[in-house]
Amino acid sequence: MKKFKDKVVVITGAGSGIGRNLAIEFSKLGAKLALNDYNTDGLEETVGLLKSGTAVFQKVFDVSQKEEMFSFAAAVIEHYGQADVMINNAGVAITRLMADEVSIEDYEWIMGINLWGVMYGSIAFLPHLRRQKESSLVNISSLFGLVGIPGQAPYCMTKFAVRGFTESLHLEEQINKTGVAVSCVHPGGIKTNIAKSARGASKDPNLIKKFEKVLTAPPKMAADTIIKGIRKKKARIIVGKDARAIHAVNQLARPVLLKLLQRSIKKL
Ligand SMILES: NC(=O)c1ccc[n+]([C@@H]2O[C@H](COP(=O)([O-])OP(=O)(O)OC[C@H]3O[C@@H](n4cnc5c(N)ncnc54)[C@H](O)[C@@H]3O)[C@@H](O)[C@H]2O)c1
After folding, report:
1. Long-range CB contacts (< 8 A, 24+ apart) of 95-99?
2. Could you give the domains of the chain?
3. How far is the CA of 164 from the centre of ligand 1 (A)?
């Protein structure tokens, strides 16, 4: 898809960070927006930042709630009559903990949002996307959907799962020639609220500061890279220098990658 004027672009988690910047950039391109977040104030703030005159439909709900996601899809179609781009962006993190220190409830919570939310959003919107001549389904994974790191097992688990799910969908839509381009996005460290709002992070302000040192790339750059990837119908969209470097090394030599990771983890 090359042009977004009058296309209906759906974005979850649009109340902050990457989702907010995607909404702003798509509004500049003349798209009609359908936005979600579970934070009412954040979503309102995003709407206030859009190019004036942008058509916006918004719904506050939790993406981990299956019925809410399916009724959102129905409401978007009732409102606009179509959906052209669906971006499953909403996501959360947990503070740094070893895999066996995380409670089962916290594993279930992060899976609900980062994985089930993405799966519900994909399945709810696919039939509508398939009705368009060309359309796009975009799921946000992470650099940590390409490599696992210590202290982030639950997050890595969800982001690897998003990648597996999305890569399967990509091939299915291609084989069936549906016209839906499916992309999986792997951002590196982006300057957003993800570390600050990570579950348990408020107990460890020092850790937030350390994480913020590696989350430095501007979210507008992330949005621009994602939009460029959608235009090119890329199966895998890598965002940021850090993600590009690790992705490249990962492709070539896993032992070298592990050394690099160990070195950067020591800084945390
Ligand atoms: N920032 C990074 O460095 C980075 C790196 C890789 C991947 N990501 C991924 O990018 C996506 C966007 O994150 P971000 O960095 O912009 O973080 P962010 O915290 O700034 O924004 C996430 C948004 O999602 C919303 N959200 C969270 N749970 C929700 C739910 N259950 N239902 C609806 N909305 C919900 C939040 O309210 C927030 O507005 C996430 O999937 C995240 O995992 C971020």
Report:
1. 95/198, 95/199, 95/200, 95/201, 95/203, 95/204, 95/207, 96/151, 96/152, 96/204, 96/207, 96/268, 97/151, 97/200, 98/150, 98/151, 98/153, 99/153, 99/154
2. 8-240 (3.40.50.720)
3. 19
Residue 172 Cα to ligand 1 middle (Å): 27
CA dihedral for 72, 74, 76, 82, sign (positive or negative)? positive
Per-residue pLDDT of the chain (268 residues; tens, 9 = 90+): 999 999 999 999 999 999 999 999 999 999 999 999 999 999 999 999 999 999 999 999 999 999 999 999 999 999 999 999 999 999 999 999 999 999 999 999 999 999 999 999 999 999 999 999 999 999 999 999 999 999 999 999 999 999 999 999 999 999 999 999 999 999 999 999 999 999 998 888 888 888 888 899 999 999 999 999 999 999 999 999 999 998 998 887 667 766 777 777 676 6
For residue 188, which atom of ligand 1 is closest to its CA? 5
Atom from ligand 1 closest to the CA of residue 144:
6
Q: Which residues approach ligand 1 with their CB closer than 6 A?
A: 12-13, 15-19, 36-39, 42, 62-64, 89-92, 113, 117, 140, 142-143, 187, 189-190, 192-194, 197, 215
Q: State if pTM tops 0.85.
A: yes
Catalytic, 80? Answer no
